[in-house]
Structure formats: C-alpha cells, structure tokens
Fold F-box/LRR-repeat protein 15-like leucin rich repeat domain-containing protein.
Amino acid sequence: MVSVPRGDAEATMNRPRPCDSDMSTVFSLDLLANILDRVSDPRDRKSCRLVCHGFLRAEEIHRRSLRVLRLEVLPGLLRRYAAGLECLDLSACPALDDRAFSAALAAGAGQWRLRSVSLSRASGVGWRGLVALVDACPRLEAVDLSHCVGVGDREAAALANAAGLRELRLDKCLGLTDVGLAKVAVGCAGLEKLGIKWCLEISDIGIDLLAKKCQDLKELDISYLKISNRSINSISSLGKLEVLNMVGCSFVDDEGLQFLKHRNNSLRVINNTADVDSSAKPFEWNRLICFLSLVHALLQSINISRCENVTSSGLTSVIEGNSGLQKLNVGDCFPELASLFFSKLNDLKDSLTVLKLDGFQVSASSLKIIGLNCKNLAKIGLSKCQSVTDEGIFELVANCVHLTTIDLTCCHLLTDRALISIGDQCKKLRCLRLESCNLITDKGLECIGTCCSSLEEIDLTDCSLSSTAMKYLSQCSKLVVLKLGLCYMISDEGLVLLASNCKKLRELDLYRCVEITDDGLAAIAAGCKKIQKLNLCYCTKITDGGLRHVSRLEELRDLELRGLCHVTSSGIAKIAMGCRHLSELDLKRCNLVDDGGLFALAQYTENLRQINISYCSISGTGLCMLLGTLKCLQDVKLVHLSLVPIEWFEIALRASYEKLKKLKLLIGLRNLLSPLLIEKLHSRGCRIRWVEKPFAARR
C-alpha cells in the first residue's frame, strides 16, 4: 500500500481518483484482480472500484460471478462483465420475464462464457427466455429453475438443446411431466446432478427413461414424487450415483430399497461372456471384479426420511448393499428401529460421518451401539427422539469424540448431565441444537462454554435459562448463531456479557425475551457489529430508542419486530436510514407504525425484498408508496390493514404485480379485488395466500 504523509491527508482525500494513473501503470490488471480477490467484504470491493479505474477495469475482466437485485441495472451489468462472467444469479431479480431476460443476454452477444445461471423463483421466465439463454451461452453447464411453478414441458424442451448441461434443478416446477423429463434426458445425456423434487406429474415412466439415458448421474433428488418401487429399480442401474434424496416417497417400501442393496449396474458385465475375453488370466479376472465392486459401492449419501412404508428391514438392506455410505438420513419413517439396523451400522464403521434418526425411539443401548460402530461420526441428528436420555448421550459421545454437530431438539428427558458429557468429550463441537430441552439449566451450559471453544451455533429456544448462562456462552468467541427465543429470564445483563466477547455473532434470536430493553440492544449494537439477522418479536419493552441502537448494525439483512407495541414510525425511520442493506422486515402488530415509517422505508431501503405490515396503522397512500417505490419487493403480507380502502389495495397491487412472488391477504378481499388483477398476479407466478379472518370492507 502507498502511504500518505499526515500533512497531505486532507488534500489527498479531496483530489478526485488520486490513484487512477499510478495504479494502472505500476500494477498489472492481473495483480489488481488478485488483490480484489482477497477483499472479502463486498462494500470494500465497491469502494476500490469507485476510487480507482484500475480496480474497476480489473474487475470487469476478471469477475466470475454476479448476483443481480434490480432489473433496471441488469443490461448494464451484463455488458460490463460479459467477457469474464461464468456464474449469474438472477433468483432475487424482480419482474424478470422473457423479454427482459432475452434483451439482457443480447447485451453480451458473442462474448458469453456463462457456465451457471440461477433463475430460481423467476416465474416470469418461460420457454422463450430459455431458448435465448441456450442460444447465447454455448458453454452452459448448470441451470437452476427451482420453484418456478409455471415451468413445464415446453421449458424443459428448450433446455434440452443445451447438450453440455451437467447440473439442472427443477424442484417444484409443477408443470413438468414425463414428456419434459424425457426431452431433458435425451438432449442432456451428460447430466450429473438433477433435482425434480415436488414435480408431482413425473411417474415411473419418466424415471425409467432418465436412468437409461443419463448414465452419468451422480446426484438425484426425487423427493415427494408419486413413484413406486419400479423407479427405484431403474435408479439402481445408475452406476455412478453418489447422492440419492427420496424424502417422502410414500409409495416406496422395503421391496424398493432391496433394489439399492442389489445394485446390478456394472456387475452385469460379469455375466455377459461376449464382452469378456475367455482367455483372461485369473489375476486379471480378480482385478476386474475388484474394480466392479468399487463401482457398485459408489453411493455415498441417501435420504429416505418420511418414507412411511419403509421399515427397519428396508433400511438394513440399504446398508448391506452400500458399504461406502457417508451420509444416512432415515428420520420420521416409523416409530422404532430394530436392533438389527443398529448392528448393521458396523458395516459403515469406516465411512459413515452423518447419521440422522429424527423421530425414532432410540434407547441408551442403541446409542451405545452407534458409538461403538460409528466412531468417525461428525454429525448426528436425534431431533424429537423423546426416549433419548443422559445415559444414552454419555454412551454415544464416549466413542464419537469427533462430533461437530449434535441435534437434540425436543429431547425432553435430557438434563445437565448430558451437556457435561458432551462438553467433556466433544472438543470439536461447532453446532448444538437443544430447543425445548426444558430440564437443562445454566449449570449445563457452563461445561459447554468452558470446553467447546470452537462452538459456532447453539439453539437454546424454549430452555429455562437465565443471564448466567450467557456468562458461560460468552467464552465461545467463535459463536456465529445464537437462538434464545422463549428464554423469558434472559435480561440486558446477559446481552452485555455476550456482546463483550462474541464479536463474530451474525444471527441472534430473542423472540419473546420479554426482559430485554433498549439498554441490552445498545450493548449488542456496540459489541456485535456483524449481526445480519435479528429477531426481537414480542420483546415488548423495546422502544424507538432501542431501534436507534439497532440502526448502527450496518450489515443487518433480516429484522423481525413483530408485536413491538411501543415502536413508532420514528424508530422505523432510524432503521431505514441506518440499515441500508435490509432485505427482510417484519412489522406485524406494530400498531403505532403509520405512513411515516413506510415513507422512510421506500426512500432508503432499496434492497428490501420481503415485508410484513399486517395490523399496522397505514393508509392507502402509504401502501401505494411502499409497493410502487421499492423495486426489489417480492414478498408482502397485508392482513388487517383496516385503514386501507379496497380501491387503494387495487391500485397498490396493480403498481407492483409484475414483481410480486408471494402475497398474503384476507380471504374477504378475494371477491372484492378485480378478477383481472388476481389473474395477472397468478400469470406472473405470484402465490396468493388467502387468510380466513373477519374482515369489514372499507370503501
């Protein structure tokens, strides 16, 4: 870095772009780009671009990824970065449709090196936009269309022309059928990753063709499809499959899982004598069989949770046929696992690192077997396993000393003894979830705080803890996520202790911590400046003074203020002016917030994407100002706005229908709003949730 003498500092600051000529002559663009790569904070990167043409030019050439939040800047950004851009994320870009998307792609015609494009939730993009994408980007390898509910077979046919496609996400594309899947399978035979979760029109026929045409598939998500055992038989022929997610496949049973045990893919070669040289030596045969056995064991991760017709027998067969499994999720299938399942885990002793058994009855003896058989476990999920006891946790952690994540949500029998065992044995612990473990006390947290110095996330929602527990947790200086919702005894004193040492905190949940006041927020704002997500719902002692402290959190993205009865528009204005990166805001039941607060939000929070203003004291003018001004707004909840006449609802929604993706309204408005408006909202992919509550129309 170039140092500036103290006496010349003021003159240097006032000189426009002092480094423009020097930077470009002293440092090459490659070196400047290398410097930018080491600047992690986006705001710092932006500062570099603004003050130096050299950095600006270097980024134009070397920038590889881009996330766009506003449609009006899209063409200019793509023209600037077309030469080097490889990853483009348009999932948060509102009002994107075929015309705008095609025009933006034309801005970089002939230059595109794009390999990955995310259009998740971009419901306005249809087959015409996808045709333009495929034509403009010959190197395209990955496309994400998840949650584009209007995407169907015609869009799939457009993507089928991208022969180099390796990764495709079509989760919840409700219009996709076997016909569209067949188009993709035939046109994109090199697919390696495919997500078709919640595509309810896909059947065994589509899965069978997919398995025949896309033999390179490594990851497949078929969760919640109405498929049968026949599909699992087809999938078993995928010799390169590593990850299979089949959550909630309720028509699959143990017979289907047997196909995963006897994966007959490449092993069929052994029975095909025409393909094998009969003169091969025994040594060569042994090498061939060894190679095929490795191919047979490629499956590394499987998620069979919520498959209600599966039993312990089926789960056991999966283990027997896939000795290389690293991740196994079998939660919420049936009440109790057989002892044979736990003993079979010994077959995975060298590979298994993640095990999720949510919702099962897991005894202390079963946890002991897990500990003895799975000593390499890094993550275990025991959420809602209500029979888990202190003894069971002791037996588990005595052998699984490498655990980094433990989920004990709703394990109501656990006491401080379990936490002491975890603290004594799991020195590498990073994530601990203890929601609704009502019997643990401050004393149990003492061992966690003292022994688990690497802890990054802890969920203590609905636990009987006081500010003393915060004293112990404050020793965990690496803490990033802390959830304290419904911990009624937490006070300002506890927040002061946390803020003194937990400088890396990014998410803090204080839902219904009713003893918290403005003073506690002052401590958090002073000590935890990196917070991005803050939940203060129903912390009823907080006033505008507390929000003034919160407004100093410049990195804040997500703020929940539901039910703060003493907060007014003055406090909201402070938030709007201070938290310029805010993208989600919940003001439900903030009864004193009126149009003044919305005017401030409309003026300063240009990146706001989601807002809940239900029960606020706003007028039609304030609603129109908010919805008409904020270009990024996509998710709005507008329940019980008693001061807003029907005609103003109509005006506000007409001004914003192109960008809205989710909308919550009283059911009484369904017959009062014009059918044409509702049709327009639906045609743009907006999902309207009608809430059935009393409503008196105001005109």
Remarks:
- The radius of gyration is 28 Å.
- DSSP finds 29 helices and 24 strands in the chain.
- Residues 1-21, 264-283, 288-297, 695-699 have pLDDT under 50 and may be disordered.
- The longest strand covers residues 662-666.
